Amino acid sequence: MTELAGLKSPRIFPAIDLRGGRCVRLVRGARDAEIHYGDDPILVATRWKSEGACCLHVIDLGAALGEADSTASVLEIAAAVKLPIQVGGGIRDENRVLDLLRGGASRVIIGTRAFRDPEFLRRCVESHGPERVMVSVDCEGERVKISGWEEESPLGIEEALRMVEGAGASRVLVTATDRDGTLSGPRTDLVRRVLDASSLLVVAAGGIGSLEHIESLLSLAHPRLEGVVVGRALYDGRVRLRDALKLTGEV
C-alpha cells in the first residue's frame, strides 16, 4: 500500500466518523448532536474510493468519547479499500497504536494522551517514525481541547506546537472545533497561525461546506499544508468528491 507520505500534497481527506460501528457526524463534537449517515462504513469507504479518493480520514468518535470503540470497523475499512488511511479517536495506549498500524492504518492521530503525557508521544514517534504518528491540535479559543473536546488543556496553541515538535512529531491535524460539522467555513486564520508558528506539516479540518471553503485553505499556498479534511459536506451533497479532488490535482 502507498503510504500517506508518498502522496501528492495538498490532498483531500474524505472523513469517515464512526460511533458504535455506524457512520455519523457530530456538530461541534457534541455527543448529543449526532447526524446519522449509515450503518455500513465499508460501503461508504468503497464509495469514496470509487469516486477517486487516494486516502481516507477515519475517526473513532465512540472511543474518543469513552464509549465502545469501533476498532473492528476501522480495520475492516483498511482491509477493504487498500488505501492509505489516517486513524484517530481514543488512541491512548501503545497497544492500540500498534494494533491499528499493524491492522492497516498508515498513520495514527494522537490527541489527549499526547498533551497529558508528552513522553508517550515521544515513544510512539521513536517506535514508529514521524510519518506514522500525527498529533491532533483541536482548538476553539486559545487553548487546546482534549477528552473528546469536552475539556480544555492548560496548553495554549503555540505552547502545544512546541511540545509536539519537541517530542519529534512532524505533522498535526488542526481542527477548528467550533466549526466542525457546521458547514460554516474553515478557520483559515487558525491554520495560517499554526503554519507560521511551527515547522510542522498541517492537515486542516472543520467547517468545510463548499468548494469555495476548500479553495480558501488551498489559497494559503503553503508548502506545509498537507491536506484538507472534508466530511459532512460530502455526505450532504454540498461537495462532490471528484470536484474537490480536481482542486488539488488528484484527478
Task: Describe the 3D structure.
With 251 residues, the chain is α/β, with parallel strands linked by helices. It has a single domain (10-246), classed as TIM Barrel (Alpha-Beta Barrel), CATH 3.20.20.70. It is built from 11 helices and 12 strands. The protein has helices at residues 41-50, 61-64, 71-81, 94-102, 112-116, 118-128, 157-166, 188-197, 211-218, 232-235, 241-248, and strands at 11-19, 22-26, 34-38, 56-60, 85-88, 107-110, 133-139, 143-146, 151-156, 171-176, 201-205, 225-230. It has an 8-stranded parallel beta barrel, surrounded by 8 helices. Helix 1 packs parallel to helix 3. The longest helix is centred in the first third of the chain and has 11 residues, at 71-81. The model has no long low-confidence stretch (mean pLDDT 96).
Structural features:
251 residues, alpha/beta, TIM Barrel, 11 helices, globular
Number of domains: 1
Gyration radius over CA: 16 Å
Q: Helices and strands: which structural class?
A: alpha/beta
Tally of separate helices: 11
Q: Could you name the CATH topology?
A: TIM Barrel
Mean pLDDT: 96
Order of helices and strands: EEEHEHHEHEHHEEEHEHEHEHH
- Low-confidence parts: none
Q: Quick one: biggest sheet?
A: 8 strands, parallel, barrel
